[in-house]
Amino acid sequence: MKILKYPHPCLRKKCKELQRIDKAVVDRVAEMFQTMYEARGLGLAAPQVGWDARLFVINANGEKDGEMVFVNPVIVEAEGAVNEEEGCLSVPGINMRVGRAERVRVKAFDLNGRQFELESDGLLAIALQHESDHIDGKLFISKLTRAGKAAIAPRLEELEEQFKAAYPDAPTSCPM
Ligand SMILES: [Zn+2]
């Protein structure tokens, strides 16, 4: 799978709920993990690979047993505040501090269609918020202060140039 980069329009889309978990979905999720590991990321959301679906994967420890899949996730509680450095596979070359809740509780479905709840803090809580933003079409760079946005403007311009070169007839939607 190819990871879409800023400013691909798919990254700005509020994704659709997944209605059905079939083999195609399970296979696609396995491919997402593979793509994420190859890119050395710890989270990857469906729109980042061009898939218009409310789904993301996270692996915070890098081990096989650390694989987590969130289908149609909802953050039901958030409290506290942290300001940690984040990066994003879709916005390469930018690492900036972003304000987030310290603890979150998330409700989601797994690949067996079972609903689960997860309470977390630390790195996982930040990843859950970062990936939840992705399926709402939001990138972490939109949460920066005005000074932060000014600091990354030259890099964003580079990414915009690369995008124009890669897609001469600008795409307007998610490929899948
Ligand atoms: Zn990201």
Structural overview:
This protein is α+β, with helices and mostly antiparallel strands. The chain has one domain (9-166): Peptide deformylase (Peptide Deformylase, Alpha-Beta Complex). 29% of the residues lie in helices and 25% in strands. It has 3 helices and 7 strands; from the N terminus they run αβββββββαα. It has a 5-stranded antiparallel β-sheet. It has a two-stranded antiparallel ribbon with strand order 4-5. The protein is globular and about 45 Å long. The termini are close together. The mean pLDDT is 96. Zinc ion (ZN) is lined by residues 88-90, 130, 134.
Secondary-structure topology with pairs:
Blueprint: H1 23-38, E1 43-45, E2 55-59, E3 67-79, E4 82-86, E5 96-100, E6 103-109, E7 115-120, H2 122-135, H3 146-166
Antiparallel strand pairs: 1-2, 2-3, 3-6, 4-5, 6-7
Zinc ion binds at residues 88-90, 130, 134.
Q: Which descriptors apply to this entry?
A:
176 residues, alpha+beta, Peptide Deformylase, two-stranded antiparallel ribbon, 3 helices
In summary, what is this structure?
It is built from 3 helices and 7 strands; from the N terminus they run H-E-E-E-E-E-E-E-H-H.
SSE string: HEEEEEEEHH
What CATH architecture would you give?
Answer: Alpha-Beta Complex
Instruction: Please give the domain count.
Output: 1
Going by CATH, the homologous superfamily would be: Peptide deformylase
* Gross morphology: globular
Beta-strand percentage range: 25-35%
**CATH fold label:** Peptide Deformylase
Query: Could you tell me the mean pLDDT?
Result: 96
Class based on secondary structure composition and strand pairing: alpha+beta
What is the tally of beta strands? 7
Radius of gyration: 16 Å
Distance between the termini: 12 Å
